[in-house]
Specification:
globular, mainly alpha, ABC transporter involved in vitamin B12 uptake, BtuC, two-stranded antiparallel ribbon
């Protein structure tokens, strides 16, 4: 237990050092922009990993909560003049309430039934964002004002890099603390066997709802900040394909691995940019890489590499 705890603390420190050191390596704003987008995806994936990796509950509609956060900030700040921080909190509250409202009935489902139910939530959110043109701008999206905090505008890639980097470290720290708490042990029990967990007194319904709401809030906060950073949001950020992309990042990095979720988000955000050299074949190459990784590393990228490293140390 102490070894595992020390490993997580070491990982958190390593993440903080990498975040602090990256600006020394990223020499232009394009690289910083990619790092920022990777950070947003990583924040969502850390929350989604709590739901999928630790609680064992699938969600194919999580991009909907990302979209709710983004459009809450866009509408409240740009159209109604709300302070950006208040709009961010309102979006997080709306996502949390929606997550709470739908979690209890749909989390009674299992397997592909649960997947279809969560997919339906995401589709409904996406349809609303596309059709309410007077409020959301419809398929073309809407412009979003900059983020101001205590009268100071957050502007430029360097400033936003530090905002996203600090938030990512904080979210990972919160996730690790949750995993090491009684709540985390309850989530692992739910994942292992709901019947066995209920026999020993775990309120499985309460813990599943709790982690679903928390992951929805993480996605909403990332969506709100993303909207202010890019200055433009479209319904595409809340559609089915974005949800699949997020789930793929979690599975690729390694389920039930907080740092694996971060690695998966970073790799699958950066990799498409690197594969542009293949031009028209970039998506084919990306698909081949994902297939090869899942075939030869079924537990995910980071857990497999960690296991190989441990075996070499023992050899």
């Amino acid at each position: 237990m102490n070894t595992l705890l020390n490993g997580r603390l070491t990982g958190l420190l390593a993440l903080a050092l990498i975040v602090a050191a990256l600006p020394l390596v990223l020499t232009n704003n394009f690289y910083l922009d990619v790092a920022i987008l990777a950070g947003f995806n990583a924040i969502v994936c850390v929350g989604l990993n709590l739901l999928i990796g630790y609680a064992g509950q699938i969600s194919l509609g999580h991009a909907g909560f990302f979209g709710i956060g983004a459009y809450a900030s866009g509408i409240l700040v740009t159209s109604y003049g709300w302070p950006p921080l208040a709009a961010l909190l309102a979006g997080a509250a709306a996502s949390g309430l929606l997550g709470f409202a739908v979690a209890k009935p749909i989390l009674r489902l299992k397997g592909h039934y649960l997947a279809m139910a969560t997919l339906g939530i995401g589709i409904i959110v996406s349809i609303v964002l596309r059709t309410e043109t007077g409020l959301t701008g419809g398929p073309d999206g809407m412009m979003v004002d900059s983020f101001r905090l205590f009268g100071v505008e957050l502007y430029g890639e360097k400033v936003w890099y530090w905002v996203v980097g600090v938030l990512l470290v904080a979210v990972v720290w919160l996730s690790l603390n949750l995993i090491d708490s009684p709540v985390g042990r309850a989530l692992r029990a739910v994942h292992g066997s709901e019947v066995a967990a209920e026999v020993v007194g775990v309120d499985t319904a309460r813990f599943k709802v709790m982690v679903f709401v928390l992951s929805a809030v993480f996605a909403s906060v990332a969506g709100s900040l993303f909207a202010h950073y890019t200055g433009l949001i479209t319904p595409a950020k809340a559609d089915f394909f974005k949800s699949i992309e997020l789930v793929t990042m979690v599975v690729f990095g390694g389920m039930a691995s907080t740092f694996g979720a971060v690695v998966g988000a970073v790799v699958l955000t950066v990799l498409p940019q690197a594969l542009t050299v293949f031009q028209d074949y970039s998506q084919i190459v990306l698909g081949a890489i994902l297939m090869a990784t899942m075939v030869f590393m079924p537990k995910g990228l980071l857990p497999t590499l960690a296991a190989l490293f441990a075996q070499r140390r023992q050899a």
